[in-house]
Structures are given as structure tokens and as C-alpha cells.
């Protein structure tokens, strides 16, 4: 959301490093649901293919209902594993602090035997955030200043580079 250009977000950096094609899917529907998250899993079917080698799951910062959070993560991971038996699955930690959210996500990843990328040392760290008044380019090549605190708190280029470095390190 707040990389200066698309090529500087972690997805593009990882794909370029691996010389791979990629597809990004915003699964916010699952993340913000307060119950029955499993009902949304089939929305992933068009994006899951047994030929996929790597799946990164960076999801959760917008979730507030954690009553079934760990179990929902286990269901999500197992659903993806069933559709993509050979893919390496990497779950990426939160970039913001919220009590127990990341810990439950990490426990689910461990229980499902998938890699968890811990971001606790860069979490909420302004050095890795885009920051107010940073310039970002939209899809049409127009530049915009970040004026919204929520957008400014997202990882900027340095944060994206660090997230990409950790993903690449985990798959090499």
C-alpha cells in the first residue's frame, strides 16, 4: 500500500529475486469477518493451483475479533495446503501491535508446520513505515503525497525491502 512504486513492495521484490510470476489477492473479506471465516475459503480457489511453488500469506492487521483466530488460521493454512501440496507456505507476521493477534497466528503456523516470518523487531517502527508526506506512485504513474496516518503507518520501501529479505532467506 505504501511502497513508493509497485516494484518496491515485497511481493515484487521477492518475485524479481526468484524470477517468478506472481499473483496478489486481497483476502480482507476473511480477515475482517468476526465469525465463520471458513465460509470465505472457497474464494481462494481461483488463485490456488497445484503448480504454485510459493505462497505467502500476509493477512490479519485489520482483524479485531480473535475469538477463533488461531483455529481460523489453521483452517486457512490447511485449506491452502490441500490445494497446493508442493507449495512452500510462508505466513508473515503483523506490522502493527495488537494483543495476541500475532502470537496466535504464529502458533497456528507452527502447528501446521509452515514458516512464520516474525516482524516483531520492525513492528510499529517508524523507520520501516512510509510516513506522512512520503511520495507514492499510483498505477497510472501519478505521484501522491501520503496524508493519511493509517496509510503512513504501512511499511514503506525500507520496510518492504526488509520483509522481502526475510521471505527470500526463508525459501533459500
Explain the overall architecture.
There is one protein chain. By secondary structure, the protein is an alpha/beta fold. The protein is 34% helix and 11% strand. The chain has 6 helices and 5 strands. The chain has a 3-stranded parallel sheet, sandwiched between helices. The radius of gyration is 16 Å and the shape is globular. The model has no long low-confidence stretch (mean pLDDT 95).
Total helical segments: 6
Give the strand tally.
Answer: 5
Report on the biggest sheet.
Answer: 3 strands, parallel
Which strand-content bin applies to the residues? 5-15%
Write out key terms for the chains shown.
three-stranded parallel β-sheet; single chain; 6 helices; 172 residues
In short:
This protein is an alpha/beta fold and 172 residues long. It contains six helices and five strands.
Q: What is this structure's SSE topology?
A:
Elements: H1 10-18, H2 28-32, E1 54-58, H3 69-83, E2 88-92, H4 101-111, E3 115-117, E4 135-137, E5 143-145, H5 149-152, H6 157-171
Parallel strand pairs: 1-2, 2-3
Antiparallel strand pairs: 4-5
Helix pairs in contact: 1-6, 3-4
